[in-house]
Design a protein that fits this description.
The structure holds 2 protein chains of 2 kinds. Chain A is an alpha+beta fold. Chain A has 5 helices and 3 strands, in the order ααβααββα. Chain B is an all-alpha fold. In chain B, 85% of the residues lie in helices and 0% in strands. Chain B contains 7 helices and no strands. Classes of the chains: A alpha+beta, B mainly alpha.
């Protein structure tokens, strides 16, 4: 059984990964990601940077008209790591249920 | 790091809640333009009721309904959520839901035979209002607000502005349009 992924398991990073994972490869822009994860600007930015550094998230910056836009999406490595972490969490819950009878 | 059963269950619950919130927002983004389209259709339909003779009302509304359903299908197919994994069978759900609504509305008119035009004009507003409210309470809260607004505007028009109800309802479509913008922008 694979272990916990400490980078993903932090509460806000877990929400970021969950939100991006549900987009099936489509990027999410910063304001929508902020709404979905219920994070503040500063928190979201710093945790996104951590996930980007780990290679789990790709950040794209561009302009829509004159307005700057930041979008994030999962990398293949991030998708794989998130799946593995969710499998691990399920296995912990199931193992505890089995032990409890 | 080892995770306890409670921590793991809480994390899985967080994941589920986050993904549900994302799905609701995707639904709003998909529903917004459809609501805007129906607002224009309503405005056209009610203006027709205010300006054209009654024998034209049914064919005009039927034509507008077909345009509305076709437009909604097109918007649902081309919307971003479809690419991001819209629920399967979306086309059939939309078609079936629209058809059921049209049959229900026509059946109510045939059975109840409203004698005053104002009752016939108010009925769609009340029907749509209550449907949105139910959807709102079950799945996506913003629809409850929109439903309550439509319901209230329809009743206000019926009781306070009955002689101009068709024009009142056409104007109320503006609120429906703004509601669509509100859904779409978030």
């Amino acid at each position: 059984m694979a272990g916990s992924d400490d980078i993903i398991h932090q509460p806000l990073r877990l929400k970021i990964m969950a939100a991006l994972s549900a987009e099936k490869g489509q990027p999410l822009d910063f304001p929508r990601l902020k709404t979905i994860t219920q994070a503040t600007d500063g928190n979201l930015g710093s945790h996104l940077a951590t996930l980007e550094k780990a290679g789990y998230v790709a950040i794209e910056k561009d302009f829509v008209g004159k307005r700057p836009r930041t979008q994030a999406k999962l990398t293949p490595q991030g998708r794989k790591a998130f799946r593995a972490h969710v499998d691990y969490l399920r296995s912990v819950v199931e193992a505890a249920e089995d032990e409890g009878g | 790091m080892t995770i306890s059963r409670n921590d793991a269950a809480a994390a899985l619950s967080d994941i589920e809640n986050t993904q549900r919130r994302g799905m609701t927002l995707r639904g709003y983004r998909l529903g917004g333009p459809i609501l805007m389209l129906w607002a224009l259709i309503w405005a056209t339909g009610y203006l027709t009721m205010g300006l054209a003779p009654p024998e034209l009302w049914l064919p005009v509304w039927l034509g507008l309904d077909v345009v509305g359903v076709a437009g909604a299908l097109l918007l649902a197919r081309t919307g971003k959520p479809a690419a991001a994994g819209a629920p399967p069978g979306m086309t059939w759900r939309l078609l079936g839901g629209s058809l059921a609504l049209m049959i229900f509305a026509l059946s109510v008119f045939w059975v109840m035979k409203p004698t005053e035009p104002a009752a016939a004009m108010a009925f769609p507003g009340l029907l749509i209002g209550v449907i949105y409210a139910v959807v709102g309470f079950w799945a996506a809260p913003r629809y409850a607000v929109i439903g309550a607004l439509m319901f209230a505007l329809t009743l206000i028009g019926y009781f306070l502005f009955q002689p101009w109800l068709a024009f009142w309802m056409a104007a109320a479509s503006g609120a429906l349009f703004l509601s669509g913008v509100w859904l779409w922008r978030r």
